[in-house]
Specification:
alpha+beta; Beta-Lactamase; 7 domains; 5-stranded antiparallel sheet; 32 helices; 43% helix; histidine kinase; coiled coil; PAC; kinase
Length: 1078
């Protein structure tokens, strides 16, 4: 015990850690809390890992040092920094070693950690002090010499050694007389003797003539007692020359003084004006001639006068210039001033005051501009065109966020580092030319972030010229347009595909273009389109240009079923099938080996639907990496699948039209043969009639025969038009009049009879103005010879309209044919697909929350079971039975917690599947309740009591006892979990004429009011219990079980007071059974 007390009170701590990935702590002394702020319990319960509080910059060094020492079984020593719980940085020194089993296997680490923060602070201060002293010494312009009392030089310091009479190494050890010129030696020698005799500092001046002219020096000689003499020599040649110059130019100085824009005042130490100078145009509170003799307190506001007096006192004390800024109101205008107070040799003070109002305004403007540049969301870069290579001198935070670079990475460099090796871009040439010419330009470049990823950078470059019209800088405004660029590329590709569809290119060519588009949009993927044979229920390749040929041949003609890879299953189930890992998917049992051999790791297959929701085929994406498509990739796939649907349906329609055309041609040929036969007959008849001088009546008969044939052809066309399926056809002339309109849907649309009255498009009812303008615009383009395809919407229907010019015999376009195809079902299918995607996203989010919560809830009890098991293994010695029993109880408790969690998951699963059905039977409710209380006693905290309140000794009910047990156990477990020690939990049972009433009341932490309405939702947990174990499923299951038996549940709660749950069941729960109470 004494040793434990000593260890726990040391300003350090001992530890023992497991040999696992995180070096999980098994033991730590109480010093851990004192040094880190984290409790020992949090460390040993893995709520905090020691590695996590080590500064990230030191973590690799610590791990490498420990691993290196373990490898050779040596003691390790290391220093590192940690973050204290209060946010401060501390320095630690650690010594430790590995603990090995009999077989030399490492089983643990043991070590000793000290706080050396104060030591580090002291070392830092000493280094700073040393650096400061060295800097001060280096900054001194004086030469210093140390001599012994015999006059011999023992040390020297000179910032300019060239000014010495000889090199330092030559005069060290020599006498003054041997070093100095005779006339200098006489002056210095006399002063040295005086300094020794009087102990006072001696100051002498002398001059020396050399090739640079005459130089003047001042020497200060100090007697250092037994340590010898210190001589400090300072050159004052420039000051001497200045004095002479000042004497000669006094008149000039006075003129210059008049030109100075500053205010100059001489003050004594009491703040009385002794002299004043101000520019003639200056605005003063009092005339300058009236200032002399007055105190600053007579002229200035008291607060300002106090500040000036403090500056005078400070300048007098430190002999340093004092600077203060202040504002002053003159003539109803606030002006800003900067004052500098300097102590003069005569103990008075010179105050130099400058009006900085304009400078202050400029500084404020600059500050606002800089703040605006830093806050703007676009990247801003400024380069200096006057320097070589036009280097960057400024970039705002948005530029750093976009590129991932820090200032140290790019300041002083040219912007071309963003292009990396991708320098062959036409836009770079455009920008270089603009920079060379000093012009503006706007380009979009391929740039690369610090991590190497590509992004598209939209750059607006603007030159900046100075007042002399000289180019000085360039300002570049940058914007990351990667998403827009990628979307543009994808949309352009989609447009090209749609053009191919309109131009009726071969379906295989269209399919190859679709696959090429998706393979560009989604990196490292392989696309495939399979068509469904509806009769045989088999899939056949339309196109898969990059899919391995062996694999493509293997899946050719596969029958669709619910377990036939991704494509066969998607076509069978009429739903998308995402297989992130082929190797683990039961759907791929027949093709796994072949797919993996061809480096196909994942497959996402999407059914291609027709406008009436029939499966036309599948669109599949193969990847050589394991994973699922991200949302943007799914959107690309959905869009491209819809385009594939249009292409396939268009092809099917063309094929159907071709077959109809062939039938029509055959009918026309048959008709033509009939006409020819009739014509031959007619010719014979005409010949006979001619020969017999046929009358006019015979000619009329011939005419009527021709009319009947023309009428028959017209009827045929009418029948085709009137029965045009899912739409209608119309013919419009150059004046936008409807000259012909027929189709299956005319009656429903109310368009019958429009062609009879030659109705103009503008007069058609049922069209919006917008639709009319779209139709008219496309009709005009068709009159110019174009074939148009566009979509319109009216009367809650969607139509795809194809136009075709109708030329006359002179090939002049007189009319336009419009074929309207009803695509409403296809549009509805697209909407359903979007809704399905939304539901799948919600399901994915729910799955992620479930996995995260489950992994967290299982980890805590499993960790406790593992640690208790290890400790039991180490407590095998006699006399430790009580400790072993405690750990066994802990294991039982955590196993019970796991059982509760698993029961919640199983209950939730059964409820979701609708497999839970109440199975009522007669049983004693009081007896079951007491049994539950006995079972749950082991979970109670210290001092907790379950108070059972019921006036009945027996209560026979007709309910499901298993569901009732789950409900009561859950509510009592929650009451125990969320209540502190020494608290009562009340379980109350009552009945009235119609109901069985239950109440469970605790004195726990309570529930915030904003959370109460959500407490019965799945996975929901109140904000104040995030640190307490739980799944958020219990109350949801309780509510559903209660409602299954015809009951209801509600709750009341007050924060930090407690909660009460109320449950009521109907007493007559069966038609032939009644609950019985005694």
């Amino acid at each position: 015990m004494q040793l434990d007390t000593i260890i726990n009170n040391l300003p350090s701590f001992f530890y023992r850690a497991k040999n696992d990935k995180h070096w999980t702590a098994e033991f730590a002394s109480q010093g851990f809390y004192k040094l880190t702020g984290h409790s020992v319990e949090d460390l040993t319960n893995s709520k905090v890992h020691f590695a996590e509080i080590i500064l990230e910059a030191d973590r690799n060094k610590v791990r490498e040092t420990i691993e290196k020492a373990i490898a050779v079984k040596e003691i390790f020593h290391i220093e590192y920094r940690i973050t204290h719980k209060n946010g401060t940085i501390k320095h630690f020194r650690e010594q430790g070693q590995g603990v090995y089993a009999a077989n030399n296997k490492l089983i643990a680490l043991e070590g000793f950690v000290q706080d050396i923060s104060k030591q580090k602070q002291t070392e830092h201060k000493l280094r700073e002090e040393k650096a400061k002293n060295t800097a001060l010494l280096d900054a001194m312009p004086d030469m210093m010499f140390i001599q012994n009392l015999k006059g011999e030089y023992t040390d020297c310091f000179a910032s300019e050694p060239e000014k010495l009479f000889m090199p330092v190494k030559d005069f060290i050890g020599k006498n003054t007389k041997e070093v100095l010129p005779p006339h200098v030696f006489e002056i210095v020698d006399e002063a040295q003797h005086k300094a020794i005799a009087t102990g006072e500092v001696q100051i002498v001046k002398y001059s020396v003539k050399n090739e640079n002219g005459e130089q003047f020096f001042e020497a200060r000689i100090v007697h250092l007692n037994q340590h010898g003499l210190l001589t400090i020599v300072r050159e004052f040649t420039l000051q001497r020359l200045a004095e002479k110059q000042f004497t000669k130019s006094e008149v000039r100085n006075k003129a210059m003084l008049q030109a100075i824009p500053d205010f100059l005042y001489t003050l004594d130490r009491n703040g009385v004006y002794l002299d004043a100078h101000a520019p003639e145009t200056a605005i003063l509170p009092v005339a300058k001639e009236d200032l002399v003799g007055k105190s600053i307190y007579d002229i200035l506001p008291e607060e300002l006068a106090d500040r000036i007096m403090k500056a005078i006192v400070q300048s007098d004390k430190t002999n340093q210039t004092q600077v203060l800024e202040y504002s002053f109101s003159l003539e109803e205008e606030v002006r800003f001033y900067e004052g500098r107070i300097v102590k003069k040799d005569n103990a008075n003070f010179l105050a130099i005051v400058r009006d900085i109002t304009e400078k202050r305004s400029v500084d404020d403007s600059l500050y606002l501009r800089n703040s605006a540049l830093a806050a703007i969301i676009n990247g801003i870069v400024i380069t200096d065109s006057r320097q070589r290579d036009n280097p960057i001198i400024y970039a705002n935070q948005a530029f750093k966020d976009t590129t991932g670079y820090e200032s140290a990475d790019f300041i002083g460099k040219n912007c071309n580092f963003l292009q990396g090796e991708d320098q062959n871009q036409e836009e770079i040439k455009i920008m270089s030319s603009a920079i060379k010419k000093g012009e503006s330009c706007h380009v979009v470049l391929r740039n690369y972030r610090k991590d190497g990823t590509l992004f598209w950078n939209e750059i607006s470059l603007t030159p900046i010229f100075n007042n002399n019209d000289i180019l000085t800088h360039f300002i570049s405004v940058q914007n990351d347009v990667s998403a827009r660029k990628k979307d543009e590329i994808f949309k352009n590709s989609i447009k090209q595909v749609m053009d191919m569809i309109i131009e009726q290119k071969p379906l295989e060519d269209i399919g190859n273009k679709i696959v090429e588009t998706i393979e560009i949009a989604i990196p490292n993927c392989i696309g495939s389109i399979l068509l469904l044979n509806k009769d045989k229920k088999t899939l056949h390749k339309l196109c898969a240009p990059n899919l391995p040929q062996i694999f493509s041949n293997a899946i050719e003609g596969i029958a669709i079923s619910d377990k036939m890879g991704s494509c066969g299953t998607a076509a069978f189930l009429k739903n998308e099938i995402i297989v992130p890992n082929i190797a683990e998917s039961p759907l791929w049992e027949d093709f796994t080996e072949l797919a993996l051999a061809e480096d196909l790791r994942a497959c996402w297959s999407f059914p291609i639907y027709s406008s009436n929701k029939e499966v036309l085929g599948t669109f599949a994406i193969y990847s050589n990496t394991i994973g699922e498509p991200i949302p943007t990739e799914k959107n690309f796939i959905y869009d491209i699948t819809r385009v594939a649907s249009v292409a396939i349906e268009k092809q099917n329609a063309n094929n159907a039209l071709k077959r109809s055309t062939e039938k029509l041609a055959a009918y026309a040929d048959e008709l033509e043969m009939t006409v020819e036969e009739r014509t031959d007959e007619l010719k014979e008849m005409v010949q006979k009639l001619t020969e017999s001088n046929l009358s006019l009546e015979d000619q009329i008969k011939e005419t009527k025969s021709a009319e009947r044939k023309a009428l028959k052809s017209k009827i045929l066309i009418e029948q085709i038009s009137q029965n045009y399926p899912l739409g209608y056809v119309a013919v419009i002339d150059a004046n936008f009049r409807i000259v012909y309109i027929q189709g299956e849907e005319l009656k429903e649309l109310g368009f019958k009879g429009l062609s009879n009255s030659k109705t103009i498009i503008d007069d058609v009812l049922g069209f919006s103005e917008e639709v009319k303008e779209i139709v008219k615009a496309n009709v005009l383009k068709t009159f110019r010879g174009e074939h148009r395809t566009f979509e319109i919407t009216f009367q809650n229907r969607f139509y795809l309209v194809n136009t075709m010019p109708l030329p006359n015999e002179n090939q002049n376009i007189e009319q336009v044919l419009l074929v309207h195809n009803n695509i409403t079902l296809q549009k509805q299918a697209e909407l359903e697909m979007l809704n399905t995607l939304k539901k799948e996203q919600e399901l994915s989010e729910l799955k992620s929350r479930f996995i995260s919560m489950a992994s967290h809830e299982f980890r805590t009890p499993l960790s406790a079971i593992l640690s208790s098991g290890i400790l039991i293994e180490k407590l095998n010695a006699p006399g430790k039975e009580e400790k072993r029993l405690r750990h066994v109880a802990k294991i039982k408790s955590n196993v019970q917690n796991l059982v509760v969690i698993l029961n919640d998951f199983l209950s939730l699963s059964k409820l979701e599947e609708g497999k839970v059905i109440a199975k009522p039977e007669k049983f004693d409710f009081i007896g079951l309740s007491k049994s539950i209380i006995d079972d749950i006693k082991g979970n109670k905290k210290k001092g907790q009591t379950i108070v059972f309140e019921c006036q009945l000794s027996e209560l026979i009910v007709f309910l499901d006892p298993k569901l009732v047990r789950h409900i009561i156990s859950n509510l009592l477990s929650n009451a125990i979990k969320y209540s502190d020690e020494n608290k009562n939990i009340i379980f109350k049972i009552e009945t009235n004429h119609h109901q069985l009433l239950l109440e469970v009341t605790d004195q726990g932490i309570g529930i915030p009011q904003e959370d109460i309405t959500n407490m019965f939702q799945r996975f929901y947990r109140a904000n104040n219990v995030t640190n307490i174990q739980g799944t958020g499923l219990g109350l949801s299951i309780v509510k559903q079980y209660t409602e299954l038996m015809g009951g209801s549940i509600k709750l009341k709660s007050e924060l930090n007071v407690g909660s009460t749950f109320y449950i009521d069941f109907p007493l007559n729960t069966s038609q032939n059974e009644k609950n019985i109470n005694n």
